[in-house]
Amino acid sequence: MKKFVNAPKDFVPEMLKGLALANPDTLKYVPEYNLIMRTDAPNPDKVSVMQGSGSGHEPAHVMIVGKGMLDAACPGDVFSAPPMDYVLETSKLLASPKGVLHIVNNYTGDRMGFDMGREMAEADGVTIKTLIVDDDVAVSDSTYTVGRRGVAGNFFVIKAVGAASEAGAELDELVRIGEKVNSVTRTMGMALTSCTPPAKGSPLFDLGADEMEIGVGIHGEPGRRREKLADANTIIDELTEAVVTDLPYERGDNVALMINGLGGTPISELYLAYGRAHEQLAGRGITVGRSYVGEYCTSLDMAGASVTLVRLDDEITSLLAAPAEVAVRIF
Amino acid sequence: MKKFVNAPKDFVPEMLKGLALANPDTLKYVPEYNLIMRTDAPNPDKVSVMQGSGSGHEPAHVMIVGKGMLDAACPGDVFSAPPMDYVLETSKLLASPKGVLHIVNNYTGDRMGFDMGREMAEADGVTIKTLIVDDDVAVSDSTYTVGRRGVAGNFFVIKAVGAASEAGAELDELVRIGEKVNSVTRTMGMALTSCTPPAKGSPLFDLGADEMEIGVGIHGEPGRRREKLADANTIIDELTEAVVTDLPYERGDNVALMINGLGGTPISELYLAYGRAHEQLAGRGITVGRSYVGEYCTSLDMAGASVTLVRLDDEITSLLAAPAEVAVRIF
């Protein structure tokens, strides 16, 4: 397989070790529980914020641990939910007098691991609340999900909640903020190619040389339909239309626009896509107040992209603009 | 082809338009000369710093225009040097009383375009000096190059020179700094896959399903040899060995270590590779003082990576650590 990998079972631990070695002052790798946490967590003056999910979506979530974002992330193996004992142990390591917030993308496996881990941690005296992210408009239920899937929009929930937690907000206030951001955030993605999990060594699903999948999930779950390849404008127009009409976003709205790459698409193409989406929104009288172009929530090496919108108000804008420090950077 | 593209001839202009739309306060797109420049350039109190090269290497160079980096970038079409008149017009637009610095990767086409553009701009009264970047240790001459190729190490030259220019350094001083950084910077890369230029619509070169190319150039130029796929550790050990022994970097050295993705490799794999390279250096008594993991200089959608080392001293460390603001970011 065309990947940097040694033994597939070591893929996630070796990635996490590299991440910690590259960020010795800010990140700590705890191999027993497969977790990455801030070296300065827990901080008794703030709620601890954590997320776990399958690996393979990097930078989500292990590479967005840091000041103003997550206090820790406990990933499972590639495309596998984190085990309940990792959720338990991470929650205990993060226990702060102000409590712990779990952010969970809406997949049945993730919810189960987090529900059970939370119960056990509460029995150990940790105060916990949970935020569910379900921003994907493509389908109403899915292969691994009851209800909508959580995808790239989780970045905005984490960013807003992380900023508020850094400013000292209480646990209930973080739940209010996170639910509010999730409620105004919508995403739809599409795949140009499949992706190759290290342990499988071959593509996760088949997609013909002249085909694409509109509305794909971040684990390759089926979307709305499979069809012939189209040009960039056609694809971006369809994704934008699906997202805009879902909330709906309306003339006069001020939004954050994210073009998220799925892992195998270069940033040149993402900026090309951004330009089209921006113009489509302008044509509908929707103003882009904040722009995000790059990889936020990926599917290993899948070529493809998603479009996310967030309806901004003063509170959300200020939380998104607050400083944050994470491993993923160019400098 | 599995790309976000409309008419291939519009690929670069559409990318540049998207880049400017996403960064309206800081970047300006000048379609007549295919250039991206800072909205606040030229600044009469600083030397203007510019680079041009073929497109397809993003974020290099159009996405690293900004405070503390480049004042402008004039790209050519995909894998084509910028035409001399773009170099001329960009130089004139950037004309500052303190002069203009051209940074050029060592490819024959780029050097020709810049030499002729410089001559014409000097005839128009612009003061110009040129810095050549040639950090690639893989081969001594190459398909499009006399001497060594300039690859991902150009990031460090730009970062250092950009920081010094922001602090008011004179043109000769920037040349001294840039030549110094280039002289202690070495890179070698490898390809797991070919890449697909939009205008060609098919892979630029053939690489078998079980093959890789060690020492590949960023336009797919042949490297040292083609061989059977190997595991990540074997690949990274070979790249690191080739880079370390070239300068050479020695026990007691403090270095910046960059793992640069070539466009199609996800960041999970890059951090795995980083961990191995970091350990290999530690085993040689070389300390990593600064870490860079991500995409800096790509080859469209090529899967692969390069390893770069920079030998640090106090001056270089301080220039690399200085603040900079460019489009490529997660926030």
TrEMBL record, chains A, B:
Coiled coil: none
Domain DhaK: 7-330
Molecular function, one GO term: kinase activity
Superkingdom as given in the UniProt entry: Bacteria
Keyword Isomerase set for record: no
Membrane found in the keyword field: no
Gene3D superfamilies reported in the protein's UniProt record: Dihydroxyacetone kinase, domain 1, Dihydroxyacetone kinase, domain 2
Keywords: Kinase, Transferase
NCBIfam families noted in UniProt: dhaK1 (TIGR02363)
Protein name, per record: Dihydroxyacetone kinase subunit DhaK
Organism: Kribbella sancticallisti
